[in-house]
Every structure is written in structure tokens, then in C-alpha cells.
Amino acid sequence: MRSSGFVVFIFWLLLQGESFLASGDREIYLPQELSIEDQCSEYCFSVVKLFFDHFIRSKVASDANGDLKNKIYLLETQLKNKDEEIKLKNQQIADKDEQIKREQFEAKINSSEAEIIKLNATIEKNELKSSRIIDLETQIKEYQLQLNNKTEDIKAFTVRIKLLETETNKSRDELISTKEEIEKCHAKIKDQEVEIKHGQDQLAIKEGLLKAFESTVREKESQFKNLTSETELLRGKYEASSCLPFVNSTNVHSIRLFDTDPFIVHCCSNVSGSGWTLIQRRVNANENFNRSWTDYKMGFGDLRENFFLGLEKIHRMTLLQPHELYIQLQDVNGSTRYARYDDFKIGSEEEAYELISLGKYSGTAGDSLTKFQLNMKFSTLDRDNDANVKRNCAKMFGGGWWFSACGRSHLNGNYYKDGTCEVRDGIIWATWKDYDFTISLTFSQMMIRPKTL
Ligand SMILES: [Ca+2]
């Protein structure tokens, strides 16, 4: 550094000296194409030249050194960059390692968890097996208990079997004895069979005689029937078969149908003309109308008060000729109404006294028969012929009637003096009372009359 400073100082002196020469009185001309050596040959000493040489060499060396330094600096910079890259790569490698380790660790954890789940499943299975084993042991104990009981039973049965064997042996002896007696009986039976055969032969002869006798009897019966029919025909001409002959009478009379004994009827001629035969009447609660099939078939009650004439008589009366039906009704307030039908007929007992025909309706009470009671069979508490598939209407409401399921009328229901009943169980004629089935009538009479026109 000191020599460099010195060189600079010398160079400065030279420059000052050049300026000094130029600024003096004498103008020195220095041609531009002269080299330093030429210039120096004029005013420099050989020593100074040495310094110049040294300075030039130093400068060259210094320039070379500067280049080197620049190269070194570039290399150092590159080296630093490479170091940075290496550090970055190392960091990345370290991160990757870390990641790989973490993934391996997670894989191990997952694997361990799977193992734990498997172990837990195995443990649960073993626990179930243990539970099952305990159950089985309990069952085995129960079976052993049952086995012991059965063994006891078997012992008891063995004793019982021995007793039965003893009894069987005794029975066998008795059986042998009985068999011997049976054989004796067989022998007796054979003897009796011979006797029976003889009796049968005799019987056959007697049966032949009997058949001949029966044939004679039938012949006589036929003759008797013919005579009876002729007698009936003759009697019919002179005996009343309805109330028609009792003109204007309202009283009881005897009538007789073609094939019946005479019987008493109540004739009515003060309601709607002459000659009606009463077949039903309700005036008070003195008679029980909740009766059996047989009672309704044969009839019951008092002809002068409450009664039902009987289905069999009504059937026979309406069988041979057309009849009118007249129904007279009265409520608790004293109001009266009527319903009239021009072709009334009921079937036989085999037909359950079905209401076969009513004909045309007329009247003031409304028609409470045609729509629901026509073509219905008669039902009583002990004979359910109605159209109600679940119940017996007669049993529900009392009395007998041509119930459907169960219909709009029922004149044989219970008698309620105050005119009010439980729904449907009184004397009902719904069309008159606007279908109020709690109104029970306090009077009714049904009467029939042969049609004369
Ligand atoms: Ca029924």
C-alpha cells in the first residue's frame, strides 16, 4: 500500500511538472504520437522509469488480481447459491423423511387398530361362548333334574306295571272261565236259533195273512174317506165357514172349515161393514204375547179381549178363497187409523206361515206391511225365520210376526199402557207415527173377510 501511494505521488508530480512547463513562458509542444518512453526520455530519470515499470507491472498484476477477485466472488456467490440449494434439498429430504416416517407410523397405527378390533371380536366371541357354556351347563342341570324325576316316575311305573300284571293274570283266569260260559251259551243259542227259524217260518205265514188283512183295511179306509168327504161336503153347505153368514153380528160364533173341527171365532160388523172375522186383538196388557211357535200356530188368549186366532186356522181360512185384511189401530190419545189390503193370504206350516199375499193397500195409517213384511216367514222367540242374519227379531222385541230384519210393523209386541216403549219392542205401526219406534199403540185388531166380488 505504501509503494502504491508513492507511485501515485510520483505520477502526480509528473503531471504537475507537465502543467508547469505548459504554463511557463516557454510553450513546449508534445506530439500526441510519442510513447511514454519517448516522453520520459525528455524529462524523466531512469529511476523514475523503474518506478513506472514497477507501477505498470503492479497495475497489470492488480488488474489480473481484480479479475481473479471477481471470478472468486462469482464462484463464491455460485457456491453460496449451491449451498442454499443443497440446504433446500436437504430440508426437502428431511421433510420427505418426516412424511415417510409419519405415514409408516400411521400405517402401523392402522394395522394395530385392525389387530385390536380383531382381538376385541375374538374376546367378544369368547365371552359369548362362555355365556353359552353357562347356559348349557344350566340346561344340563335341569335335564339331570328332569332325568332324576323321570327315573322316579319309571320306578313308580314299574311298580304299577307289576300290579297290573298281577291283575291281568287274575283277569285272564276270569276270562278263561267266562269263555267257557260263552261256549255253553253258544250251544244254547244254536238250540234257540233252530227254534227261531221255526218261529220265523210261522211268522212268514202270519205276515202273509196280515198283508191280506191290511189290504182289506185300506180298502175299507178309502171307502170311509169317500163317505167322510161326501158328509163334509153336505155339512159345509149347511155350516158357516166364516163370519159372512152372521150378518151385522159383533159376537162370538162357531164356524167350521172344510177339513177342520168347528171352532169359535169373534165376528165384527161394527167397524167396516158386516162379516169380518177377528184374527188378532190388543186392548190391554192382560195377555202375554211373547209366546212359542206352537202357541202362535194353535192360537191363544180370550176372544173377547186379547187374542191371536192361530196361524193354522188363518192359513186354512185364506187357502181356498181370496180374503181381505182390515187392520184397525188406536194410539194412547184415542186417535184411530186403519190399513186395508185386498188379497191377504198366508202359507202352510211347511212354508213357516209365510205372508204370501197382501194385495192392494188402502187406508189412513200408511202401509207398514208391503215393503218389509210381505214374503217374510213368521218368527217367534223359539223359531228364527227372519231376514236378520245375526239376531232373532222375535227374541229381541217379543211376540211373533212376519219379521224381515226387522221391519216397519209389529202388532204382537209388548203392551205399554202409556203408549211409550223401548225402541221397536211395543205395538208398532211405523208409517202412522213417522217411524218413531218408541211409540206403542194401545189398541189394534186384525180381521179378515172372504172377498165376495
Ligand atoms: Ca235371524
TrEMBL record:
Residues 1-17 form the signal peptide. CDD domains: FReD. One of its GO terms (cellular component) is extracellular space. The keyword NADP does not apply. Residues 79-167 form a coiled coil. The keyword Protein transport does not apply. Keywords: Coiled coil, Disulfide bond, Signal. Residues 234-452 form the Fibrinogen C-terminal domain. This is GL26043. It comes from Drosophila persimilis. The lineage of its organism: Eukaryota, Metazoa, Ecdysozoa, Arthropoda, Hexapoda. The gene is Dper\GL26043.
